[in-house]
Amino acid sequence: LIKEYEAGGDEYIPTLGIPDEEFATVKKLITKEEIRVVTLAKLKLRHDMCLWDIGAGSGSVSIEADHLLPNGRIFAVERNPQCVEFIKENLSKFNARHVTLVEGDAPGCLENLPDPDRVFIGGSGGNLWDILDTVDGRLAAEGRVVINAVTLDTLTAACEFFENAGYQLEVTTVNIARTRPLSDYKIFESYNPVYIIAAVKE
Amino acid sequence: LIKEYEAGGDEYIPTLGIPDEEFATVKKLITKEEIRVVTLAKLKLRHDMCLWDIGAGSGSVSIEADHLLPNGRIFAVERNPQCVEFIKENLSKFNARHVTLVEGDAPGCLENLPDPDRVFIGGSGGNLWDILDTVDGRLAAEGRVVINAVTLDTLTAACEFFENAGYQLEVTTVNIARTRPLSDYKIFESYNPVYIIAAVKE
Amino acid sequence: LIKEYEAGGDEYIPTLGIPDEEFATVKKLITKEEIRVVTLAKLKLRHDMCLWDIGAGSGSVSIEADHLLPNGRIFAVERNPQCVEFIKENLSKFNARHVTLVEGDAPGCLENLPDPDRVFIGGSGGNLWDILDTVDGRLAAEGRVVINAVTLDTLTAACEFFENAGYQLEVTTVNIARTRPLSDYKIFESYNPVYIIAAVKE
Amino acid sequence: LIKEYEAGGDEYIPTLGIPDEEFATVKKLITKEEIRVVTLAKLKLRHDMCLWDIGAGSGSVSIEADHLLPNGRIFAVERNPQCVEFIKENLSKFNARHVTLVEGDAPGCLENLPDPDRVFIGGSGGNLWDILDTVDGRLAAEGRVVINAVTLDTLTAACEFFENAGYQLEVTTVNIARTRPLSDYKIFESYNPVYIIAAVKE
Q1: Taking the CB of residue C185, how many other CB atoms lie within 10 A of it?
Q2: Is C186 on the interface with D (CB under 8 A)?
Q3: In chain C, whose CA is at the least distance from the CA of B193?
Q4: For residue D125, is it left (φ>0), alpha (ψ between -120 and 50) or beta?
């Protein structure tokens, strides 16, 4: 359809809203385009911030954030070896200059990173509470943590953590359905709902 | 690549996801934060494009697009005098350098603008068909039109136009609900659903 | 879980909300439990009415309506031979006494049925306009037609018909997501959205 | 099987889906028509059951259940004096013969009621945990509790209770938007989302 990413540079990449199918990924696991940009909006990024992207998956959030942090730094943290390969491939394809890949288990592998202004948690591998504990100790004042939850269990645990820790909390549920461009009939197909938790350190 | 809001106080404005309450506007009419960023994602902006924002309202879409078109041009078209004042105020507050305000009725006032690569229609003042006709005549090859519809009437009319004109069409419905940050209980409050129509000229 | 439909009678069948998995059906095609009861609510059935269920599929709407029309009549119209077998099996299992199966193509096969007070159209096999034309000619004054649309095409066509014919029109969109009872984590899974069109003859 | 509303004017009341505006109520607080019928479906009522409706509000759930429990008993429990008056008025208008009004605070006022097969909790007045504790002690084997939650707090607390108590749990989120029948344009207006928790005693 639209030729993008052709030449040796950024000029064909949209500055927001990279289509899901442009990423090397396991299709079912990618943060969908629409969810990704709402997530980025909730992060309230400023040009020179430090962002941790924990459970980066295919790196799609880090890569879209790259445009929004022209003077900042992004650390894409991932422990799954297959995902790590996807991230490498995608960082190269999209020429994401501010993103550093960090292989390993969170929270352990976060130790040597610079303190974050913003943290996105797309996956926690069962260590959500430990990760949040570490994040809370390192996050800058007025810092912001955003979590995408697809289970009620994660939603509940995250809200409990942030309320105990005195953060200001907003939960946004996003229900998206879309038609497929090339089908004869415009059937709406739903994504599963996502809960986007945004917590601000007071 | 992406410029920052520099002057007095503006340094705290995020590079995506400006909170609704930061805009001078009639509260009920603003394109909500979450809808705005999904709309921008659907526009698939590239750094040097020309965007028409027709029925710009408070100018919020143009202002968020300003970051995403560092080498581009944006024309915010609006006929309502009160909205025009809001746009002026917001352009000044957010220091949106690539946005030009165009006062007047579409499609008439579009005549002297440069041809667009991208067109967003947030409001059509009852002239949707005429506006689409004009846009279709001026839009670049592989250009893209995005319309936010809140009525079934607009959704139907827009789809009919684009199918007749041979565009490739995608419709995304967005249902958002969110909790209020400062209330004692986390009650989810819904926005009305929005249909985001994205049409690509073949 | 709960033993239902065991004995030779109605006593174990819930009087509303028969679980989807109790019906003989093609799983993807059944009108889901939640959608089915909202559809029945929109039909505004009274005890002695005549209901046409056009494109009855597995007969689930007719069978749930059976309880709500203790002195009425229901005609389940279906042309697909496999679906006809499902309906027979379900009518027998649920002992639906007021439901008559009508095999054949609508609108042709509607000719010999008594005039309806209520009509539900779950599927139209590409003949929506002809079916609506026939229904309109036969429907009682203050009668009511309910259509479940999953495509924008059906939604648009149905609305156009009813507006031309002078009906009062309401469209309800239903977005449902639910957790699976027996999984370890409560992941919300979405149904595709359904548009329930309710039209009242003036 | 299912009785009808007989007296003056009542013959026009449907056997399911009584319009919200037919109930004496505080408009914002009524369980909306669509939510009400999905709630009833989740209760899986059988003809001769005993239902407790705790926090009955305007009594709309009890009144719609009256049709579905032709040989059963319904206890509508409410402590707010204004709501009690609404319930009295509605029970009279709809001639709901199987519904008994119980004025007072739950769980205290539940003591003298017969044990329930089904329990619906529409409001808990801050005593959710105590009410669930009492309900758990009285509920029949294979009994079923349904709760409508509009806050994340209630959703979380209810899920925690049921998981601790070993119930099988399903959560259904319902997002409804509908057009207004008499407006010129078909604008979709959303209800706030409701979480319908259905728990089955093993």
Answers
A1: 11
A2: yes
A3: C173
A4: left
Whether D98 contacts D72, CB under 8 Å: yes
Q: Which CATH superfamily is domain A20-200 in?
A: Vaccinia Virus protein VP39 (3.40.50.150)
C161, D159 contact by CB (below 8 A): no
Distance from CA of A154 to the nearest CA of C (A): 9
Closest to A75 measured CA to CA, from A94, A89, A86, A91: A91
Domain formed by B10-200, architecture: 3-Layer(aba) Sandwich (3.40)
Residue ranges of domains in chain D? 10-200
What pLDDT band is residue B27 in, cutting at 50, 70 and 90? confident
pTM: 0.93
- Backbone torsions φ then ψ of A149, nearest 5 degrees: -110, 135
- Which residues, at least 6 apart from B10, have a Cβ–Cβ distance to it below 8 Å? B93, B94, B95
Q: d(Cα B61, Cα B25) in Å, to the nearest integer?
A: 13
Between chains, do B45 and A15 touch, taking CB under 8 Å as contact? yes
3-state SS, residue C16: coil
Best of B151, B154, B156 to disrupt the C interface (most C CBs within 10 Å) is: B156
What's the token pair of residue D132?
Answer: 């669930």
User: In this predicted complex, what is the ipTM?
Assistant: 0.93
Matching residue, tokens 């143009």:
B62
Specify the residue for token string 């995408």.
A148
Distance CA B142, CA B147 (A): 17
- Tens digit of pLDDT for each residue in D127-149? 999 999 999 999 999 999 999 99
**DSSP three-state, residue B117:** coil
Rg of chain A over all Cα atoms, to the nearest angstrom: 17
* Residues of chain D found within 8 Å of residue B185, distances taken between Cβ atoms: 151-153
Write the DSSP string, C65-125: HHHH-TT-EEEEEE--HHHHHHHHHHHHHHT-TTEEEEES-TTGGGTTSPPPSEEEES--T
Chain A residue numbers with beta carbons less than 8 Å from the beta carbon of B168 are 1, 181-182
